Write a sequence for this structure.
């Protein structure tokens, strides 16, 4: 078996009964194709969802927002073709699950005959009760509760009779059914439970008020209600107030009971850091913790979970005299913070533990030209989340051969959420030595606490908020890079990248070009215009101002266009094909051959060679041109292992008195890692002199 080491960690061996592959060439067509595929009707209207499974899947795809994967939720009949690759239950199926036991009683297959027979009886009784609940569904869901309680009794009896003989599949399937049945019972009975923290960002040592709210919105009476909190090791809680429970210990129909706790976060509490980010990555792989319960989870479980237990009693005028299994009910909820936005109303956020003091450094990386003997600025932002604020000092520890001024700065933050920004100048103290040099930054409070990391809150509408931490340090990478004298760059930002800062660090002045300047063609004083990644795709002002950019090139300017995911339209001076399905090279170590080593892009002001393509990260590039007019000159050739050579990663062409370059090389991924060769090559691009380019073409 593969991955046999997982067997030692309690993972059961398993095998799929059938393996299908999507017939992708049928994706955009409903025409019958004789390729052995099976049509799955994904466009059937589901009365509970109010839409088809295809529409649901399209909504799911549209959540991949960082890659612009929005898809239409097409109505009406649709089929998806799948091809059966392998089957252990026959290969002549007319239905996708044919030959696969999908029934609930199928989970008893590994039990003894005696236990299987008894468990199957209970499971069939469960199904009968669920069908009875379905029949009772109406405007008032209360009548369903009786049948759902009976269904839960049957599941509990099936679990009890099987006992220790239960397989993992049986236990897991039954646990899932019990959880779903409980949710259905409480929904039908109008019972809800939630746990709310009054603060969303906690710090170690803090005490926070937490309220557990049990709402009896239906017609039952809840008797003997009790609540509790499940806490991490070392945390404490005390119940300080109960409201909404009668002296008899009941919650009447329609009433809300509130149990108020004070929860103490220990001073040594860990901050909320995703489990797969607790240790440095092993190359590109995350290092998972020893706790196997966390493996594969999309995020950490919530730190605090509330539980409530109670019994159900029918009102005195009910015609039903007995409720099965009504005496033991448990409902749980993770804690959360609930706030109100003046514009959008109520919102929810996960509760996070963060450092009392965070230290954020900008920029975290500086690329330093080896000939630069001046100074550059590092900005440090100190933020306090402690209720009483924080006071202390920040110090920068300079590596050997470097000096910093001032060496330390004090801060005095009065309350939670307060910030203070301070600037430090760093400079070489003697000869500048190539390589990486790290400045470490620490904040020490008056209480002697030391902090050496900052965090950013990743918080989007479609992603639960989480904290992403970074070390409080700045790495200076000294690189032998030069920019041609007189270069002045205008930058048109696209979907977002660090190009402007990278160019500044190379030593060239940069101006950000807004929509007005682009539309007006206001490019006076600029030698080069750089388009950020996906700029033509994301900026309507740029699409309508292509002529202005080409006029800039014709008048002797240099235009550098970084990768775009779609056509370049009227921006391209000659025909060039770029878009979905365009070539890319994913192997960041793939060899790169310079086609014309004497082209000025590779000679001035930095001589580019094989060493400049070492140390690249994630990929070589994407959305290479797949075809182009003969007036473009391809400059590089590279490919992933086993694939044909790709010539469209960098193309240059003469446009009037200027030059136009399209490149799909992933410069934007190299900036953060301060890859020296990427800086040197890009410095040559922005330094490209159209006159030198014409001389090169003439020599060819």
């Amino acid at each position: 078996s593969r991955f046999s080491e997982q067997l030692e960690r309690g993972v059961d061996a398993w095998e799929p009964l059938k393996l299908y592959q999507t017939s992708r060439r049928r994706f955009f067509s409903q025409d019958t194709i004789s390729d052995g595929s099976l049509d799955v009707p994904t466009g059937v209207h589901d009365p509970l969802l109010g839409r088809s499974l295809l529409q649901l899947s399209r909504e799911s795809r549209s959540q991949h927002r960082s890659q612009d994967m929005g898809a239409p939720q097409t109505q009406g009949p649709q089929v998806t073709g799948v091809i059966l690759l392998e089957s252990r239950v026959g290969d002549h199926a007319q239905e996708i699950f044919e030959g696969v036991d999908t029934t609930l009683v199928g989970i008893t297959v590994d039990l003894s005959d005696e236990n299987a027979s008894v468990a199957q009886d209970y499971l069939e009784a469960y199904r009968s009760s669920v069908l009875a609940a379905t029949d009772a569904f109406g405007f008032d869901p209360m009548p369903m509760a009786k049948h759902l309680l009976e269904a839960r009794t049957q599941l509990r009896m099936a679990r009890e009779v099987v006992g220790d003989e239960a397989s993992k599949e049986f236990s897991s399937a039954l646990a899932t059914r019990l959880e779903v049945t409980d949710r259905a019972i409480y929904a039908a009975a109008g019972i809800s439970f939630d746990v709310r923290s009054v603060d969303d960002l906690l710090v170690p040592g803090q005490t926070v008020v937490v309220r557990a709210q049990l709402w009896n919105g239906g017609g039952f009476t809840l008797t003997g209600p009790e609540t509790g909190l499940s806490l991490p090791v070392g945390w404490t809680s005390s119940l300080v107030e109960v409201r909404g429970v009668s002296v008899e210990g009941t919650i009447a129909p329609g009433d809300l009971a509130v149990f108020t706790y004070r929860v103490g976060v220990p001073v040594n509490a860990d901050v909320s850091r995703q489990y797969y980010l607790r240790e440095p990555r092993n190359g590109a792989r995350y290092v998972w913790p020893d706790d196997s319960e966390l493996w594969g989870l999309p995020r950490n479980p919530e730190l605090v979970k509330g539980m409530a237990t109670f019994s159900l009693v029918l009102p005195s005028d009910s015609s039903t005299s007995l409720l099965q299994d009504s005496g033991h009910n448990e409902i749980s909820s993770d804690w959360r913070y609930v706030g109100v936005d003046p514009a959008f109303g109520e919102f929810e956020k996960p509760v996070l533990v963060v450092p009392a003091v965070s230290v954020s450094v900008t920029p975290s990386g500086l690329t330093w030209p080896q000939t630069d003997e001046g100074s550059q600025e590092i900005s440090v932002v100190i933020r306090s989340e402690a209720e009483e604020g924080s006071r202390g000092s920040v110090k920068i520890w300079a590596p050997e051969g470097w000096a910093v001024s001032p060496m330390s700065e004090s801060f005095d933050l009065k309350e939670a959420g307060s910030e203070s920004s301070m600037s430090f100048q760093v400079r070489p103290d003697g000869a500048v030595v190539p390589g990486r040099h790290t400045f470490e930054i620490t904040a020490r409070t008056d209480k002697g606490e030391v902090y050496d990391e900052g965090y950013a809150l990743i918080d989007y509408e479609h992603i639960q908020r989480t904290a992403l931490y970074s070390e409080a340090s700045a790495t200076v990478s000294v690189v032998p890079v030069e920019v041609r004298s007189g270069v002045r760059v205008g930058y048109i930002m696209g979907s977002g990248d660090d190009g402007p800062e990278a160019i500044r660090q190379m030593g060239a002045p940069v101006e950000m070009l807004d929509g007005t300047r682009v539309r007006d063609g206001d490019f006076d004083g600029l030698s080069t215009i750089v388009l950020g990644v996906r700029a033509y795709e994301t900026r309507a002002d740029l699409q309508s101002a292509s002529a202005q950019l080409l006029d800039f090139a014709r008048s002797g300017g240099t235009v550098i266009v970084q990768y775009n995911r779609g056509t370049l339209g009227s921006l391209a001076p000659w025909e060039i094909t770029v878009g979905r399905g365009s070539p890319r090279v994913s192997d960041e170590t793939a060899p790169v051959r310079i086609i014309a080593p004497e082209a000025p892009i590779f000679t001035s002001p930095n001589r580019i060679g094989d060493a400049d393509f070492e140390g690249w990260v994630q990929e070589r590039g994407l959305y290479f041109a797949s075809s182009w007019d003969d007036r473009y000159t391809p400059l590089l050739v590279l490919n992933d292992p086993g694939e044909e050579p790709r010539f469209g990663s960098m193309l240059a062409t003469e446009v009037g008195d200027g030059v136009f370059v399209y490149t799909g090389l992933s410069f934007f991924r190299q900036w953060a890692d301060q890859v020296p060769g990427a800086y040197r090559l890009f410095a040559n691009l922005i330094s490209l002199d159209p006159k030198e380019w014409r001389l090169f073409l003439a020599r060819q």
